[in-house]
Amino acid sequence: MCRIATALCALLLIPLTPSTAWANPPGMPTVIEAQTELAALEIADETHADTYDRRKFPHWSTASGQCNTRETVLIRDGQSVVTDAACSPISGSWYSPYDGVTWTQASDLDIDHMVPLKEAWRSGAWSWTTERRKAFANSLSDTQLWAVTDNVNQGKGDQDPSSWRPPLASFTCEYARSWIDVKHDWGLTAQPAERTALAEMLATC
């Protein structure tokens, strides 16, 4: 982000604007691709729920320069984002696709893991190395990370689509496509009720 001397950088506000407004994470699959990936998911009951510990997924690691993963997602997904010298966003606009609300304070947003860390753990991440879990928790190359309204994310918690869907119905299709793609790409399993819910959500596309 800021590439000049630290002392001077501290005196400047660097505007960082994404190439498109309200950017989405990269790699969103088409509906047909998501249907194929859903059919390929291993269906299994979840396990190891009682051994989950969030600390086993080191997250918000340094992504580039002064910016950690959270800050990078806020810059990517926002519009007209301005950061301070430490890469902390101090102004901008962010559209939360889960509920359709636009925010102007970064503190009103959480960076949601599309497939929650605890859900991933129960679906197979319990057997991963710490490095793989760190990569999953900080993944910027797929649709795992989204900037969304904080209390909506907190309401989602560790629920899968069989028990939680985004309040904004028009995002249902995209949500299912993202969830399926993340589980498929990372080799995570799905429960029968979860698969049924995802198929229903894809039918809305």
| Rg from Cα | 18 Å
Q: Which consecutive residue ranges, at least 5 long each, have pLDDT under 50?
A: 1-21
Gross geometry: globular
| Order of adjacent strands in the largest pleated sheet | 1-4-5-6
User: How far is the N terminus from the C terminus?
Assistant: 37 Å
The total count of helices amounts to: 8
Mean pLDDT: 90
Q: State the major sheet.
A: 4 strands, antiparallel
- Care to count the β-strands? 8
The ordered H/E elements are HEHEEHEEEEHHEHHH
Helical content (DSSP H or I, runs of 4+): 25-40%
Return the structural class. Answer: alpha+beta
Strand content: 15-25%
Structure write-up:
There is one protein chain. This protein is of the alpha+beta class. It has helices at 6-9, 31-40, 69-77, 117-122, 130-137, 150-156, 172-185, 192-202, and strands at 14-16, 62-64, 67-68, 78-83, 89-96, 101-103, 109-113, 145-149. The strands form three sheets. Strands 1-4-5-6 form a four-stranded antiparallel β-sheet, covered by helices on one side. A two-stranded antiparallel ribbon has the order 2-3.
